[in-house]
Amino acid sequence: MCLTLERSKDKHLMDQRAIDPPLPENNAEPIAGIDPVYLTPPPVEIPSGDLENIVAPADEASPPSPVVETIYRHRLPVRIGHWVNAICLPILVMSGLQIFNAHQALYWGERSDRDRPLLSIKSVKTESGEFKGVTTIMGLSFDTTGVLGFSSGSVRGFPSWATIPSGKWLAMGRQWHLFFAWVFVLNGVFFTLYSLAGRHFWRDLFPKVEDVRRIGRDLVNHLRFRHAGGEEAKRYNVLQKLAYTGVIFGLAPLIVLTGLIMSPAVDAALPGLLGLFGGRQSARTIHFLACFAFIGFVATHLFMVATTGLRNNIGSMITGWFRIPNDHERENEKP
Amino acid sequence: MRNHSGQGIGRRRLLVGMVQAAGLLFLTGCDNLSRSEWFTRLLGKTEVVTQRAQRLISPKKAMAKEFIEADLSPVFPPNGNRDPENPDYQRMANNGFADWKLEVGGVVQQPMTFSLVELRDLPSRTQITRHDCVEGWSAIGKWKGAPLCQILERVQPLPSARYVVFHCADPDEDGTLYYESLDFDDAFHPQTILAYEMNDQALPTAHGAPIRLRVERQLGYKHAKYVMRIEVVESFTSIGGGKGGYWEDEGYEWYAGI
Protein backbone atom coordinates (compact mmCIF):
# COMPACT_ATOMS: atom_id res chain seq x y z
CA MET A 1 0.00 0.00 0.00
CA CYS A 2 2.66 2.43 1.04
CA LEU A 3 4.74 1.55 -1.92
CA THR A 4 1.94 2.20 -4.35
CA LEU A 5 1.32 5.49 -2.69
CA GLU A 6 4.89 6.62 -2.99
CA ARG A 7 5.14 5.59 -6.59
CA SER A 8 1.98 7.41 -7.53
CA LYS A 9 3.25 10.55 -5.92
CA ASP A 10 6.13 10.77 -8.32
CA LYS A 11 3.81 10.91 -11.25
CA HIS A 12 1.50 13.62 -12.32
CA LEU A 13 -0.62 15.49 -9.81
CA MET A 14 -3.78 14.33 -11.43
CA ASP A 15 -2.72 10.71 -11.44
CA GLN A 16 -5.54 8.58 -10.27
CA ARG A 17 -6.03 5.28 -8.73
CA ALA A 18 -8.90 3.34 -7.36
CA ILE A 19 -8.58 2.36 -3.76
CA ASP A 20 -10.66 0.51 -1.30
CA PRO A 21 -11.93 0.83 1.29
CA PRO A 22 -13.08 4.40 0.99
CA LEU A 23 -12.40 6.94 3.72
CA PRO A 24 -14.81 6.16 6.54
CA GLU A 25 -17.23 8.86 5.55
CA ASN A 26 -20.83 8.96 4.44
CA ASN A 27 -20.41 6.25 1.88
CA ALA A 28 -21.52 2.68 1.82
CA GLU A 29 -19.29 -0.34 1.76
CA PRO A 30 -19.01 -2.28 -1.46
CA ILE A 31 -21.60 -5.01 -1.68
CA ALA A 32 -19.98 -8.38 -1.46
CA GLY A 33 -20.07 -10.50 -4.54
CA ILE A 34 -20.97 -7.79 -6.97
CA ASP A 35 -18.37 -6.25 -9.17
CA PRO A 36 -18.74 -2.61 -8.26
CA VAL A 37 -18.50 -1.45 -11.83
CA TYR A 38 -21.83 -3.05 -12.69
CA LEU A 39 -23.76 -1.47 -9.89
CA THR A 40 -26.63 0.61 -11.08
CA PRO A 41 -26.42 4.31 -10.43
CA PRO A 42 -28.68 5.74 -7.74
CA PRO A 43 -32.24 6.64 -8.71
CA VAL A 44 -32.49 9.87 -10.61
CA GLU A 45 -35.48 11.44 -8.93
CA ILE A 46 -34.27 12.23 -5.44
CA PRO A 47 -36.62 14.34 -3.38
CA SER A 48 -34.14 16.71 -1.84
CA GLY A 49 -33.77 16.59 1.93
CA ASP A 50 -35.23 13.11 2.22
CA LEU A 51 -32.06 11.19 1.71
CA GLU A 52 -32.40 8.87 4.69
CA ASN A 53 -35.61 7.49 3.28
CA ILE A 54 -33.99 6.59 0.04
CA VAL A 55 -30.89 5.00 1.41
CA ALA A 56 -32.73 2.99 4.03
CA PRO A 57 -34.23 0.04 2.07
CA ALA A 58 -30.97 -1.50 1.08
CA ASP A 59 -32.44 -4.28 -1.01
CA GLU A 60 -34.10 -2.02 -3.53
CA ALA A 61 -32.46 1.35 -3.92
CA SER A 62 -28.83 0.47 -4.01
CA PRO A 63 -26.26 2.52 -2.14
CA PRO A 64 -24.17 4.92 -4.18
CA SER A 65 -21.48 3.67 -6.43
CA PRO A 66 -18.71 2.21 -4.34
CA VAL A 67 -16.05 2.90 -6.94
CA VAL A 68 -13.94 5.35 -5.06
CA GLU A 69 -11.34 7.22 -6.96
CA THR A 70 -8.59 9.01 -5.14
CA ILE A 71 -6.10 11.42 -6.60
CA TYR A 72 -2.89 12.85 -5.25
CA ARG A 73 -3.99 16.45 -5.21
CA HIS A 74 -1.64 18.38 -2.95
CA ARG A 75 2.09 17.84 -3.00
CA LEU A 76 4.13 18.12 0.16
CA PRO A 77 5.52 21.65 -0.38
CA VAL A 78 2.01 22.92 -1.08
CA ARG A 79 0.67 21.23 2.04
CA ILE A 80 3.45 22.64 4.23
CA GLY A 81 2.93 26.07 2.72
CA HIS A 82 -0.79 25.84 3.35
CA TRP A 83 -0.45 25.02 7.04
CA VAL A 84 2.25 27.63 7.60
CA ASN A 85 -0.19 30.17 6.19
CA ALA A 86 -2.96 28.76 8.35
CA ILE A 87 -0.82 29.55 11.41
CA CYS A 88 0.46 32.90 10.15
CA LEU A 89 -2.78 34.48 8.99
CA PRO A 90 -4.78 34.48 12.23
CA ILE A 91 -1.70 35.67 14.13
CA LEU A 92 -0.98 38.41 11.60
CA VAL A 93 -4.60 39.58 11.58
CA MET A 94 -4.94 39.61 15.36
CA SER A 95 -1.55 41.16 16.12
CA GLY A 96 -2.32 43.66 13.34
CA LEU A 97 -5.53 44.65 15.09
CA GLN A 98 -3.49 45.10 18.28
CA ILE A 99 -1.25 47.53 16.36
CA PHE A 100 -4.28 49.29 14.89
CA ASN A 101 -5.61 49.79 18.42
CA ALA A 102 -2.62 52.04 19.15
CA HIS A 103 -4.10 54.59 16.75
CA GLN A 104 -7.71 53.80 15.91
CA ALA A 105 -8.14 55.73 12.70
CA LEU A 106 -7.33 55.47 8.99
CA TYR A 107 -6.48 58.23 6.53
CA TRP A 108 -5.55 58.86 2.92
CA GLY A 109 -2.26 60.38 1.70
CA GLU A 110 1.04 60.82 3.51
CA ARG A 111 -0.25 62.48 6.67
CA SER A 112 -2.80 61.63 9.29
CA ASP A 113 -4.76 64.86 9.78
CA ARG A 114 -6.84 63.89 12.76
CA ASP A 115 -9.82 65.97 11.75
CA ARG A 116 -10.06 64.12 8.44
CA PRO A 117 -10.03 60.36 9.01
CA LEU A 118 -11.63 57.90 6.59
CA LEU A 119 -12.44 55.66 9.50
CA SER A 120 -12.20 56.18 13.21
CA ILE A 121 -13.15 54.14 16.23
CA LYS A 122 -13.76 56.11 19.38
CA SER A 123 -15.26 55.73 22.78
CA VAL A 124 -17.61 58.48 23.85
CA LYS A 125 -18.83 59.14 27.37
CA THR A 126 -22.59 59.51 27.39
CA GLU A 127 -24.51 61.88 29.65
CA SER A 128 -25.30 59.02 32.01
CA GLY A 129 -21.58 58.50 32.47
CA GLU A 130 -21.41 55.28 30.47
CA PHE A 131 -19.04 54.61 27.63
CA LYS A 132 -20.23 54.03 24.11
CA GLY A 133 -18.22 52.74 21.15
CA VAL A 134 -18.65 54.86 18.06
CA THR A 135 -17.26 53.88 14.67
CA THR A 136 -17.24 56.53 11.96
CA ILE A 137 -16.73 55.59 8.32
CA MET A 138 -16.51 58.42 5.80
CA GLY A 139 -18.53 60.66 8.09
CA LEU A 140 -21.22 58.09 8.92
CA SER A 141 -21.30 57.11 12.57
CA PHE A 142 -22.43 53.80 14.01
CA ASP A 143 -22.90 52.68 17.57
CA THR A 144 -20.55 49.71 17.91
CA THR A 145 -20.54 49.38 21.70
CA GLY A 146 -19.52 45.89 22.76
CA VAL A 147 -17.31 45.29 19.74
CA LEU A 148 -15.54 48.42 18.49
CA GLY A 149 -14.57 51.36 20.66
CA PHE A 150 -15.80 49.97 23.96
CA SER A 151 -15.98 46.30 24.86
CA SER A 152 -15.92 44.16 28.01
CA GLY A 153 -15.68 47.25 30.17
CA SER A 154 -12.62 48.74 28.51
CA VAL A 155 -11.95 51.52 26.08
CA ARG A 156 -10.30 49.94 23.03
CA GLY A 157 -10.69 49.76 19.25
CA PHE A 158 -10.95 46.07 18.48
CA PRO A 159 -12.05 43.84 21.37
CA SER A 160 -9.65 41.72 23.40
CA TRP A 161 -10.82 38.47 21.77
CA ALA A 162 -9.66 39.81 18.39
CA THR A 163 -6.14 40.89 19.32
CA ILE A 164 -2.79 39.31 20.16
CA PRO A 165 -1.97 39.77 22.96
CA SER A 166 -5.49 40.15 24.31
CA GLY A 167 -4.61 43.12 26.52
CA LYS A 168 -3.36 46.47 25.27
CA TRP A 169 0.31 45.81 24.51
CA LEU A 170 1.60 47.46 21.33
CA ALA A 171 5.25 46.41 21.76
CA MET A 172 4.32 42.72 22.01
CA GLY A 173 1.78 42.98 19.18
CA ARG A 174 4.52 44.37 16.95
CA GLN A 175 6.88 41.55 17.91
CA TRP A 176 4.31 38.92 16.94
CA HIS A 177 3.34 40.76 13.78
CA LEU A 178 6.84 41.33 12.43
CA PHE A 179 8.03 37.82 13.26
CA PHE A 180 5.11 36.13 11.53
CA ALA A 181 5.28 38.63 8.68
CA TRP A 182 8.75 37.27 7.93
CA VAL A 183 7.46 33.68 8.14
CA PHE A 184 4.55 34.56 5.85
CA VAL A 185 6.77 36.31 3.31
CA LEU A 186 9.45 33.60 3.25
CA ASN A 187 6.73 30.96 2.94
CA GLY A 188 5.23 32.90 0.04
CA VAL A 189 8.59 33.22 -1.69
CA PHE A 190 9.26 29.50 -1.25
CA PHE A 191 5.78 28.59 -2.53
CA THR A 192 6.15 30.86 -5.55
CA LEU A 193 9.54 29.44 -6.49
CA TYR A 194 8.27 25.89 -6.04
CA SER A 195 5.14 26.55 -8.05
CA LEU A 196 7.06 28.15 -10.88
CA ALA A 197 9.61 25.34 -11.00
CA GLY A 198 7.05 22.60 -10.49
CA ARG A 199 4.62 24.17 -12.95
CA HIS A 200 1.93 24.17 -10.24
CA PHE A 201 0.79 27.61 -11.38
CA TRP A 202 0.40 26.66 -15.04
CA ARG A 203 -1.04 23.25 -14.49
CA ASP A 204 -3.44 23.81 -11.63
CA LEU A 205 -3.93 27.45 -10.76
CA PHE A 206 -4.02 29.73 -13.78
CA PRO A 207 -7.47 29.89 -15.40
CA LYS A 208 -7.42 28.60 -18.96
CA VAL A 209 -9.53 29.75 -21.88
CA GLU A 210 -12.02 26.93 -21.45
CA ASP A 211 -12.26 27.79 -17.75
CA VAL A 212 -13.20 31.34 -18.49
CA ARG A 213 -15.93 30.15 -20.85
CA ARG A 214 -17.43 28.12 -18.04
CA ILE A 215 -17.46 30.95 -15.56
CA GLY A 216 -21.22 31.54 -15.75
CA ARG A 217 -22.05 27.88 -15.22
CA ASP A 218 -19.62 27.54 -12.32
CA LEU A 219 -21.02 30.64 -10.71
CA VAL A 220 -24.58 29.30 -10.89
CA ASN A 221 -23.47 25.91 -9.57
CA HIS A 222 -21.70 27.57 -6.64
CA LEU A 223 -24.69 29.69 -5.77
CA ARG A 224 -26.86 26.57 -5.78
CA PHE A 225 -24.27 24.71 -3.69
CA ARG A 226 -23.81 22.15 -6.43
CA HIS A 227 -20.22 21.05 -6.35
CA ALA A 228 -18.22 19.13 -8.83
CA GLY A 229 -17.94 15.37 -8.74
CA GLY A 230 -16.32 12.85 -11.02
CA GLU A 231 -13.97 14.18 -13.69
CA GLU A 232 -14.76 17.81 -12.90
CA ALA A 233 -13.65 17.45 -9.30
CA LYS A 234 -10.14 16.50 -10.37
CA ARG A 235 -9.17 20.03 -11.14
CA TYR A 236 -9.98 23.37 -9.60
CA ASN A 237 -12.98 25.13 -11.11
CA VAL A 238 -12.61 28.60 -12.52
CA LEU A 239 -13.86 30.35 -9.39
CA GLN A 240 -11.31 28.52 -7.28
CA LYS A 241 -8.58 29.33 -9.79
CA LEU A 242 -9.52 33.00 -9.81
CA ALA A 243 -9.71 33.14 -6.02
CA TYR A 244 -6.36 31.41 -5.52
CA THR A 245 -4.48 33.35 -8.20
CA GLY A 246 -6.10 36.57 -6.98
CA VAL A 247 -4.84 35.96 -3.47
CA ILE A 248 -1.39 34.70 -4.51
CA PHE A 249 -0.64 37.37 -7.10
CA GLY A 250 -2.87 40.20 -5.91
CA LEU A 251 -3.82 40.29 -2.28
CA ALA A 252 -0.68 38.76 -0.74
CA PRO A 253 1.82 41.00 -2.57
CA LEU A 254 -0.45 43.98 -1.88
CA ILE A 255 -0.54 43.40 1.86
CA VAL A 256 3.22 42.84 2.00
CA LEU A 257 4.01 45.94 -0.06
CA THR A 258 1.68 48.20 1.89
CA GLY A 259 3.18 46.80 5.09
CA LEU A 260 6.68 47.63 3.88
CA ILE A 261 5.66 51.14 2.86
CA MET A 262 4.81 51.87 6.48
CA SER A 263 8.51 51.42 7.24
CA PRO A 264 10.39 54.74 7.09
CA ALA A 265 13.64 52.87 6.35
CA VAL A 266 12.11 51.02 3.38
CA ASP A 267 10.62 54.28 2.09
CA ALA A 268 14.11 55.78 2.07
CA ALA A 269 15.67 52.73 0.43
CA LEU A 270 12.98 52.25 -2.25
CA PRO A 271 11.47 55.69 -2.84
CA GLY A 272 9.42 54.44 -5.78
CA LEU A 273 7.19 52.38 -3.51
CA LEU A 274 5.61 55.36 -1.75
CA GLY A 275 4.21 56.79 -4.93
CA LEU A 276 2.50 53.49 -5.77
CA PHE A 277 -0.23 53.95 -3.20
CA GLY A 278 -0.20 57.68 -2.58
CA GLY A 279 1.64 57.81 0.74
CA ARG A 280 2.23 56.09 4.04
CA GLN A 281 -1.24 56.63 5.46
CA SER A 282 -2.86 55.42 2.24
CA ALA A 283 -0.67 52.34 2.46
CA ARG A 284 -1.81 51.82 6.04
CA THR A 285 -5.45 52.07 4.95
CA ILE A 286 -4.93 49.64 2.06
CA HIS A 287 -3.06 47.28 4.39
CA PHE A 288 -6.08 47.33 6.70
CA LEU A 289 -8.56 46.73 3.86
CA ALA A 290 -6.39 43.93 2.46
CA CYS A 291 -6.46 42.37 5.92
CA PHE A 292 -10.25 42.25 5.78
CA ALA A 293 -10.12 40.92 2.22
CA PHE A 294 -7.96 38.10 3.62
CA ILE A 295 -10.51 37.51 6.38
CA GLY A 296 -13.22 37.32 3.70
CA PHE A 297 -11.17 34.91 1.60
CA VAL A 298 -10.43 32.66 4.56
CA ALA A 299 -14.06 32.71 5.71
CA THR A 300 -15.25 31.72 2.22
CA HIS A 301 -12.52 29.10 1.98
CA LEU A 302 -13.49 27.58 5.34
CA PHE A 303 -17.16 27.59 4.38
CA MET A 304 -16.39 25.77 1.14
CA VAL A 305 -14.11 23.32 2.93
CA ALA A 306 -16.85 22.57 5.46
CA THR A 307 -19.65 22.19 2.93
CA THR A 308 -17.91 20.11 0.26
CA GLY A 309 -16.74 17.20 2.40
CA LEU A 310 -14.96 18.50 5.47
CA ARG A 311 -12.97 15.39 6.27
CA ASN A 312 -11.98 14.65 2.69
CA ASN A 313 -10.85 18.25 2.21
CA ILE A 314 -8.86 18.52 5.40
CA GLY A 315 -7.50 15.00 4.97
CA SER A 316 -6.28 15.81 1.47
CA MET A 317 -4.41 18.87 2.76
CA ILE A 318 -2.71 16.64 5.34
CA THR A 319 -1.98 13.49 3.33
CA GLY A 320 -2.24 14.87 -0.18
CA TRP A 321 -4.86 12.32 -1.22
CA PHE A 322 -8.25 13.60 -2.28
CA ARG A 323 -11.20 11.33 -2.80
CA ILE A 324 -13.24 12.27 -5.85
CA PRO A 325 -16.87 12.65 -4.83
CA ASN A 326 -19.12 10.60 -7.09
CA ASP A 327 -22.37 11.88 -8.51
CA HIS A 328 -24.55 10.63 -5.69
CA GLU A 329 -22.47 12.25 -3.00
CA ARG A 330 -22.78 15.58 -4.64
CA GLU A 331 -26.51 15.50 -4.04
CA ASN A 332 -25.76 14.62 -0.46
CA GLU A 333 -23.74 17.71 0.15
CA LYS A 334 -26.46 20.27 0.35
CA PRO A 335 -25.82 22.15 3.58
CA MET B 1 -36.76 14.96 7.43
CA ARG B 2 -36.94 16.15 11.02
CA ASN B 3 -34.24 13.76 11.92
CA HIS B 4 -32.03 15.08 9.19
CA SER B 5 -32.37 18.77 10.07
CA GLY B 6 -32.02 17.95 13.77
CA GLN B 7 -28.72 16.27 13.03
CA GLY B 8 -27.69 19.33 11.05
CA ILE B 9 -28.34 21.67 13.93
CA GLY B 10 -26.56 19.39 16.38
CA ARG B 11 -23.56 19.20 14.13
CA ARG B 12 -23.53 22.93 13.62
CA ARG B 13 -23.70 23.50 17.37
CA LEU B 14 -20.86 21.09 17.89
CA LEU B 15 -18.82 22.81 15.19
CA VAL B 16 -19.47 26.27 16.66
CA GLY B 17 -18.56 25.00 20.12
CA MET B 18 -15.37 23.47 18.82
CA VAL B 19 -14.41 26.67 17.00
CA GLN B 20 -15.06 28.71 20.15
CA ALA B 21 -13.04 26.34 22.31
CA ALA B 22 -10.19 26.36 19.81
CA GLY B 23 -10.31 30.17 19.71
CA LEU B 24 -10.14 30.43 23.48
CA LEU B 25 -7.28 27.97 23.60
CA PHE B 26 -5.46 29.90 20.88
CA LEU B 27 -5.90 33.24 22.67
CA THR B 28 -4.74 31.98 26.07
CA GLY B 29 -1.89 30.17 24.36
CA CYS B 30 -0.76 33.37 22.66
CA ASP B 31 -1.02 35.34 25.91
CA ASN B 32 1.05 32.74 27.73
CA LEU B 33 3.65 32.78 24.97
CA SER B 34 3.80 36.59 25.18
CA ARG B 35 4.90 36.22 28.79
CA SER B 36 7.26 33.30 28.28
CA GLU B 37 10.96 33.96 28.05
CA TRP B 38 11.90 31.56 25.27
CA PHE B 39 9.18 32.70 22.91
CA THR B 40 9.74 36.42 23.37
CA ARG B 41 13.45 35.83 22.84
CA LEU B 42 12.58 34.03 19.59
CA LEU B 43 10.32 36.91 18.51
CA GLY B 44 13.11 39.32 19.44
CA LYS B 45 15.35 37.79 16.78
CA THR B 46 13.13 39.42 14.17
CA GLU B 47 14.69 42.80 14.93
CA VAL B 48 18.15 41.62 13.89
CA VAL B 49 16.81 40.01 10.70
CA THR B 50 14.83 43.14 9.85
CA GLN B 51 17.77 45.43 10.53
CA ARG B 52 20.12 43.32 8.39
CA ALA B 53 17.58 43.09 5.56
CA GLN B 54 16.81 46.81 5.61
CA ARG B 55 20.48 47.77 5.74
CA LEU B 56 21.11 45.35 2.90
CA ILE B 57 18.64 47.08 0.59
CA SER B 58 19.49 50.61 1.81
CA PRO B 59 22.44 52.50 0.49
CA LYS B 60 24.13 54.06 3.55
CA LYS B 61 23.04 57.52 2.52
CA ALA B 62 19.57 56.59 1.24
CA MET B 63 17.54 59.70 1.97
CA ALA B 64 14.10 59.85 3.51
CA LYS B 65 11.60 61.61 1.26
CA GLU B 66 11.59 65.38 1.63
CA PHE B 67 8.38 67.32 1.10
CA ILE B 68 7.41 70.89 0.24
CA GLU B 69 5.83 73.52 2.49
CA ALA B 70 2.38 72.78 1.11
CA ASP B 71 2.63 69.27 2.55
CA LEU B 72 3.13 70.44 6.15
CA SER B 73 0.68 69.06 8.69
CA PRO B 74 -1.77 71.77 9.80
CA VAL B 75 -1.39 70.35 13.30
CA PHE B 76 1.67 68.38 14.33
CA PRO B 77 0.60 66.50 17.46
CA PRO B 78 3.28 66.32 20.15
CA ASN B 79 3.76 62.91 21.74
CA GLY B 80 5.34 61.67 24.94
CA ASN B 81 6.31 64.35 27.43
CA ARG B 82 5.09 67.83 26.54
CA ASP B 83 6.57 69.85 29.40
CA PRO B 84 9.20 67.99 31.41
CA GLU B 85 8.55 67.97 35.14
CA ASN B 86 12.17 68.56 35.91
CA PRO B 87 13.16 71.61 38.04
CA ASP B 88 16.53 72.00 36.32
CA TYR B 89 14.87 71.94 32.93
CA GLN B 90 12.17 74.39 34.00
CA ARG B 91 14.81 76.79 35.30
CA MET B 92 16.70 76.70 31.99
CA ALA B 93 13.49 77.06 30.02
CA ASN B 94 12.44 80.13 32.01
CA ASN B 95 15.77 81.65 31.13
CA GLY B 96 15.27 80.99 27.39
CA PHE B 97 17.95 78.26 27.54
CA ALA B 98 20.61 80.99 27.74
CA ASP B 99 22.65 78.90 30.17
CA TRP B 100 21.84 75.57 28.52
CA LYS B 101 24.85 73.68 27.27
CA LEU B 102 24.99 70.47 25.27
CA GLU B 103 27.69 68.22 26.62
CA VAL B 104 29.26 65.84 24.13
CA GLY B 105 31.63 63.28 25.57
CA GLY B 106 32.27 59.62 26.18
CA VAL B 107 34.66 57.58 24.07
CA VAL B 108 35.94 60.60 22.13
CA GLN B 109 39.23 62.36 21.51
CA GLN B 110 37.94 65.82 22.35
CA PRO B 111 34.94 66.21 24.68
CA MET B 112 33.13 69.48 23.98
CA THR B 113 30.17 71.58 25.03
CA PHE B 114 27.93 73.61 22.75
CA SER B 115 25.68 76.48 23.70
CA LEU B 116 22.53 77.04 21.69
CA VAL B 117 24.23 79.95 19.93
CA GLU B 118 27.21 77.78 19.06
CA LEU B 119 24.93 75.09 17.64
CA ARG B 120 23.16 77.69 15.53
CA ASP B 121 26.52 78.90 14.26
CA LEU B 122 27.34 75.47 12.83
CA PRO B 123 26.39 74.84 9.20
CA SER B 124 22.71 73.94 9.31
CA ARG B 125 20.37 71.66 7.43
CA THR B 126 16.67 72.28 6.81
CA GLN B 127 14.38 69.42 5.85
CA ILE B 128 10.64 68.85 5.49
CA THR B 129 10.06 65.26 6.48
CA ARG B 130 7.40 62.85 7.62
CA HIS B 131 7.40 61.79 11.24
CA ASP B 132 6.12 58.22 11.64
CA CYS B 133 4.95 57.28 15.08
CA VAL B 134 5.12 53.66 16.24
CA GLU B 135 1.40 54.03 16.99
CA GLY B 136 0.67 54.39 13.29
CA TRP B 137 0.09 58.09 12.64
CA SER B 138 2.26 60.40 10.49
CA ALA B 139 2.81 64.15 10.50
CA ILE B 140 4.92 66.33 8.25
CA GLY B 141 7.10 69.05 9.75
CA LYS B 142 9.92 71.37 8.77
CA TRP B 143 13.07 71.00 10.81
CA LYS B 144 16.24 73.09 10.95
CA GLY B 145 19.26 72.02 12.93
CA ALA B 146 22.89 71.09 13.12
CA PRO B 147 23.79 67.80 11.44
CA LEU B 148 24.94 65.36 14.10
CA CYS B 149 27.91 64.36 11.95
CA GLN B 150 29.29 67.91 12.27
CA ILE B 151 29.35 67.59 16.02
CA LEU B 152 30.73 64.04 15.99
CA GLU B 153 33.51 65.04 13.62
CA ARG B 154 34.52 67.80 16.04
CA VAL B 155 34.68 65.53 19.10
CA GLN B 156 36.29 62.67 17.13
CA PRO B 157 34.96 59.33 18.40
CA LEU B 158 37.69 56.81 19.24
CA PRO B 159 37.98 53.69 17.06
CA SER B 160 36.25 51.52 19.68
CA ALA B 161 33.14 53.74 19.72
CA ARG B 162 29.96 52.18 18.30
CA TYR B 163 26.92 54.07 19.54
CA VAL B 164 25.78 57.59 20.26
CA VAL B 165 23.56 57.92 23.34
CA PHE B 166 21.24 60.90 23.89
CA HIS B 167 20.44 61.76 27.50
CA CYS B 168 17.29 63.81 27.89
CA ALA B 169 15.67 66.06 30.47
CA ASP B 170 12.17 64.55 30.50
CA PRO B 171 11.32 62.14 33.32
CA ASP B 172 8.35 59.73 33.38
CA GLU B 173 6.08 59.39 36.44
CA ASP B 174 8.72 57.30 38.18
CA GLY B 175 11.43 59.85 37.53
CA THR B 176 13.20 57.73 34.89
CA LEU B 177 14.77 60.03 32.35
CA TYR B 178 14.26 59.53 28.63
CA TYR B 179 17.23 58.43 26.58
CA GLU B 180 17.91 57.02 23.13
CA SER B 181 20.80 55.68 21.10
CA LEU B 182 21.86 55.31 17.48
CA ASP B 183 24.60 53.38 15.75
CA PHE B 184 27.04 55.22 13.51
CA ASP B 185 25.12 54.39 10.30
CA ASP B 186 22.24 56.54 11.47
CA ALA B 187 24.30 58.98 13.53
CA PHE B 188 26.37 60.02 10.48
CA HIS B 189 23.40 60.06 8.08
CA PRO B 190 23.05 63.49 6.42
CA GLN B 191 19.41 63.85 7.57
CA THR B 192 20.24 63.12 11.20
CA ILE B 193 20.19 66.55 12.81
CA LEU B 194 19.85 68.19 16.21
CA ALA B 195 16.87 70.37 15.41
CA TYR B 196 16.46 73.75 17.13
CA GLU B 197 13.71 75.02 14.81
CA MET B 198 10.38 73.55 13.80
CA ASN B 199 8.24 75.10 11.08
CA ASP B 200 10.47 78.23 11.07
CA GLN B 201 9.98 78.86 14.82
CA ALA B 202 12.23 78.10 17.76
CA LEU B 203 11.50 74.48 18.73
CA PRO B 204 8.37 74.54 20.95
CA THR B 205 8.55 73.04 24.43
CA ALA B 206 6.06 70.30 23.52
CA HIS B 207 8.34 69.20 20.68
CA GLY B 208 11.54 69.06 22.74
CA ALA B 209 13.03 72.55 23.27
CA PRO B 210 15.78 73.51 23.08
CA ILE B 211 16.87 70.67 20.73
CA ARG B 212 15.54 67.33 19.60
CA LEU B 213 17.01 64.62 17.49
CA ARG B 214 15.70 63.96 13.98
CA VAL B 215 16.61 60.58 12.55
CA GLU B 216 14.38 60.35 9.53
CA ARG B 217 14.63 56.67 8.63
CA GLN B 218 13.42 55.55 12.04
CA LEU B 219 10.17 55.65 13.99
CA GLY B 220 9.23 58.58 16.22
CA TYR B 221 10.45 57.27 19.56
CA LYS B 222 14.06 57.35 18.29
CA HIS B 223 13.73 61.14 17.83
CA ALA B 224 14.73 62.05 21.39
CA LYS B 225 13.42 65.40 22.66
CA TYR B 226 14.95 67.69 25.35
CA VAL B 227 18.47 66.45 24.60
CA MET B 228 20.90 67.53 27.32
CA ARG B 229 23.96 65.37 26.85
CA ILE B 230 25.43 63.23 24.10
CA GLU B 231 27.60 60.31 25.06
CA VAL B 232 29.60 58.24 22.60
CA VAL B 233 29.89 54.68 23.89
CA GLU B 234 31.18 51.24 23.00
CA SER B 235 28.09 49.57 24.42
CA PHE B 236 24.86 50.77 26.01
CA THR B 237 24.21 47.75 28.21
CA SER B 238 25.14 49.64 31.38
CA ILE B 239 22.92 52.64 30.57
CA GLY B 240 19.33 52.78 31.83
CA GLY B 241 17.66 49.39 31.41
CA GLY B 242 20.43 48.33 29.06
CA LYS B 243 18.39 48.12 25.87
CA GLY B 244 19.56 51.41 24.40
CA GLY B 245 16.53 53.58 25.02
CA TYR B 246 13.55 54.40 27.18
CA TRP B 247 11.01 52.59 25.02
CA GLU B 248 13.50 49.84 24.19
CA ASP B 249 13.60 49.10 27.92
CA GLU B 250 9.80 48.76 27.71
CA GLY B 251 10.00 46.10 24.99
CA TYR B 252 10.13 48.14 21.79
CA GLU B 253 12.80 47.40 19.18
CA TRP B 254 16.10 49.26 19.33
CA TYR B 255 16.17 49.18 15.51
CA ALA B 256 13.01 51.07 14.69
CA GLY B 257 13.12 51.04 10.89
CA ILE B 258 9.63 49.54 10.63
CATH homology superfamily of the largest domain in chain B: Oxidoreductase, molybdopterin-binding domain
Separation, N- and C-terminal Cα atoms of chain B: 58 Å
- Unreliable stretches of chain A (pLDDT < 50, length at least 5) are 1-61
Shape of chain A: globular
Radius of gyration of chain B: 24 Å
Major sheet of chain A: order of its strands?
3-4-5-6
CATH architecture of the largest domain in chain B: Alpha-Beta Complex
Write down how many β-strands of chain A occur, each being a DSSP E stretch of 2 or more residues.
Answer: 9
For the termini of chain A, the CA-CA separation is 34 Å
CATH class of the largest domain in chain B: Alpha Beta
How many strand elements of chain B?
A: 10
Major β-sheet strand ordering of chain B = 2-1-10-5-6
Instruction: Determine the strand fraction of chain A and express it as a percent band.
Output: 5-15%
Poorly predicted runs of chain B: none
Tell me the helix content of chain A. Answer: 40-55%
Instruction: Based on Cα principal axes, name the global outline of chain B.
Output: elongated
**Biggest sheet overview of chain A:** 4 strands, antiparallel
> Proportion of β residues of chain B?
15-25%
Oligomer: heterodimer
By DSSP (H or I, 4+ residues per run), the number of helices of chain A equals: 13
Topology:
The complex is a heterodimer of chains A (335) and B (258).
Chain A: H1 2-10, E1 16-18, H2 51-55, E2 69-72, H3 76-100, E3 105-106, E4 119-125, E5 131-137, E6 140-143, E7 149-151, E8 154-156, H4 170-197, H5 200-205, H6 209-213, H7 215-223, H8 238-261, H9 264-269, H10 271-277, H11 280-307, H12 310-319, E9 321-324, H13 327-332
Chain B: H1 2-35, H2 37-57, H3 87-94, E1 101-106, E2 112-115, H4 116-121, E3 125-132, E4 138-147, H5 148-155, E5 163-171, E6 177-183, H6 184-187, E7 193-198, E8 201-202, E9 212-214, E10 227-233, H7 246-249
Parallel strand pairs in B: 1-10
Antiparallel strand pairs in B: 1-2, 3-4, 4-7, 5-6, 5-10, 7-8, 7-9
